[in-house]
Input
Amino acid sequence: MDLHKERIGAGQKVGVINLGCARNLVDAQMLLGRLKRQGQRIVAAPEAQTVIVNTCSFIEDARKESIDTILDLIELKKEGKIKKVIVAGCLAQRYGKDLAKEFSAVDAFVGVPSLDRDNNPAQVQLTPKHFAYVKICESCFNVCSFCAIPKIKGKFISRTIESVVKEVKALDAQGVKEINIIGQDITAYGLDIYRQKSLARLLKELAGVIKNIEWIRLLYAFPAHVSDELIEVIAQEPRICKYIDMPLQHISDHILLEQNRNITTEQTIQLIRKIRRAIPHGFVRTTFITGLPGETREDFEELRAFVKDFRFERAGVFVYSKEEGTLAAGMKKQVPEKVKKARLDALMQDQKAVAMEIQQSLVGRHLKVLIEEKENIPSLVHKQEPKASYKTYIGRSEYDAPDVDGVVYVRSEVPLKAGDFIQVMITDAYEYDLAGVVE
Ligand code: SF4
Output
């Protein structure tokens, strides 16, 4: 049953459990938007009669979490607490047929919705009202040897600039303060429809139409596709966050080649230096993979030295996960799990030290913070006992992407609400979080 076209019974109370990344969240918003137009009542999952689990299939751990959630929902259905279970998203897209045989209690398996190039039907926003994700393209041109996403998501597709501008203008009119531009590889945006990388052009268009939106954040840039023009726009446009999320995955020439990343050690180093020169106070967020087949001790030591020398403000590390149907799955010299894990732990230790020093360097600085919520119980991060007149809040600086980075704990005598921007003097720094006061 293709949920996107067929009704699931009139006036159902439908809720979604979204797993995986922000791109999956936008898919869930699109799916709920379609169901709402079909007359379904969209409610929070715990109140729903029909529950959709929007699954992730990126790596083994993600698949396990998806399966566990499906089993929990089947249990609730058996207990009569819910009527229908629908499995959507990447796991259903990839293994729908097999799962249907295994889980007969599931009412429908629906894949990922296709991204409409021109039209962007209204979505049901699942993020807090003050920020939103805007998916500008789907899937990926690249064929990284460890990654199954292009196989799950299909052909690379960019939305037209007109369609994205229309969506962002609507979000701006709703009072959204921050938009997060997403895709699998946003730096390939436009290569299909405009025959050239067009993210810089899109950003200039967006900057020209927004009034309320103060932050445009870029997530998922592909290093080999980051152009000088893009770096220039990020540096010059005040409302683009000085924050670049750009997974590098490794640094040794040997492994970059094995990963099929289309970039060399030297090109990567030149790119980082270019970004640092153009955006001196910018933050770079990245990720690395340890244990790709063939990774030698030397490769790994080169990566450790790189992380220590180039000091990334935000970095995550993953162990290589053997993905069915990928190039790397068929490679010889698979690295033992124990070694992969030991390398991950060592690299995370290196990164922790770097991150802490960088966080410490923010103490005494004033940062613009977007308030997310009021803190019910003042958390212990406020070393200085907040004066009785202080209220405490949780927010993010332009250096904190939603859900993946740290937060800023804020003490303020002026009442604040979600969506407010406020200057905060940073007083305390922690591994990933900061604390500060509104003066
Ligand atoms: S850039 Fe590489 S890792 Fe990212 S989605 Fe595309 S193929 Fe996968």
Q: What stands out?
A: The chain has three domains: 13-111, 131-361, 366-437. Residues 337-360 form the longest helix (24 residues). Residues 366-437 form a domain with the OB fold (Dihydrolipoamide Acetyltransferase, E2P) fold (CATH 2.40.50.140).
